[in-house]
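pinned: reference chain
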Amino acid sequence: MLESCIEDSEQYSRRDTIEIHGVVPVEKVEQVLEVIKSVGKALDLTIENSMVSACHRLRSRDGTDKPPGIIVKMTRRIDAESLLQRRLVKRNFSTHHIGLTASPAQPIYINESLCPGRRRLLNAARVVKGEKQYTYLWIRGGKILMRKAEKAPVKVITSQADLAKL
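pinned: its structure tokens
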């Protein structure tokens, strides 16, 4: 119970934070804020300096040549939600949309930032989704949601026990 309360609090503190993943290349002298602005522009959203509280690249994972993701903490939750919503509307969002056309288009993903406990639970839910033939798995407001089929009821996953009940 206490662990759940702490995790909920930690997740709530990330409500204004998004993550950008995909093959957004790292440059030697990189202005991460400019990368974020170009992503916003490609999604028809003007991102001003005052809208971003902090932003930085994540650490590179050992043994991978894939560029690390970008963490963006927006100053207002509505701005983070707006960016996430714009990404949902624009299907097949890729590096070509932000002007990187020298190489083949690579997808760019924009997601809510999850605390470590929720990220582990999401990974476990991905496994269960495949095993139990669930069609939908998504995150909304820091909550992990699953649905077996189009009209089936939505299941909120808060723990490993919820996954075991599916």
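why pinned: The longest strand covers residues 17-22. Residues 116-131 form the longest helix (16 residues).
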